Automatic annotation (TrEMBL):
<dbReference type="GO" id="GO:0022625">
    <property type="term" value="C:cytosolic large ribosomal subunit"/>
</dbReference>
<dbReference type="InterPro" id="IPR000456">
    <property type="entry name" value="Ribosomal_bL17"/>
</dbReference>
<keyword id="KW-0687">Ribonucleoprotein</keyword>
<comment type="similarity">
    <text>Belongs to the bacterial ribosomal protein bL17 family.</text>
</comment>
<keyword id="KW-0689">Ribosomal protein</keyword>
<dbReference type="GO" id="GO:0006412">
    <property type="term" value="P:translation"/>
</dbReference>
<comment type="subunit">
    <text>Part of the 50S ribosomal subunit. Contacts protein L32.</text>
</comment>
<dbReference type="Pfam" id="PF01196">
    <property type="entry name" value="Ribosomal_L17"/>
</dbReference>
<protein>
    <recommendedName>
        <fullName>Large ribosomal subunit protein bL17</fullName>
    </recommendedName>
</protein>
<dbReference type="GO" id="GO:0003735">
    <property type="term" value="F:structural constituent of ribosome"/>
</dbReference>
<dbReference type="InterPro" id="IPR036373">
    <property type="entry name" value="Ribosomal_bL17_sf"/>
</dbReference>
Length: 124
């Protein structure tokens, strides 16, 4: 049973897992979508939504500092605070979409595409 277990370990030590997820969030914010395994994608989705929620703060300096705790590139952090977060000002969560994609060639791991939801889209 998985009661009270907050997140998956993804078969990595803590430092490696945290850095891998930070890099995935940075790439997602920079390019708009990322292709990765399903397990990583589910963890990425949780972290990316939290980053965008922090970036929506009215105080831009505070928001930038909080985003920089996760995002590894300064220019991407500025992009999140100044361009991405204002698009989702009227949306309460659900900023990312996960689409199951294919199986990876080497080990047949299921892959998924994580992408940012367009700002004008309605939820179903």
């Amino acid at each position: 049973m998985r009661h009270r277990i907050k997140r998956k370990k993804l078969g990595r030590p803590t430092e490696h897992r945290v850095m891998m997820l930070r890099n995935l969030v940075t790439d997602l914010m920079e390019h708009g979508k990322v292709v990765t395994t399903v397990a990583r994608a589910k963890e990425l989705r949780r972290l990316a939504d939290k980053v965008i929620t922090k970036a929506k703060d009215e105080d831009k300096v505070k928001a930038l500092r909080e985003v920089l705790t996760v995002v590894t590139k300064k220019d991407v952090a500025f992009k999140v605070v100044n361009e991405i977060a204002p698009k989702y000002a009227d949306r309460n969560g659900g900023y990312t979409r996960l689409l199951h994609y294919d199986y990876r060639k080497g080990d047949a791991a299921p892959t998924a595409i994580v992408m940012l939801v367009e700002a004008g889209e309605e939820r179903e």
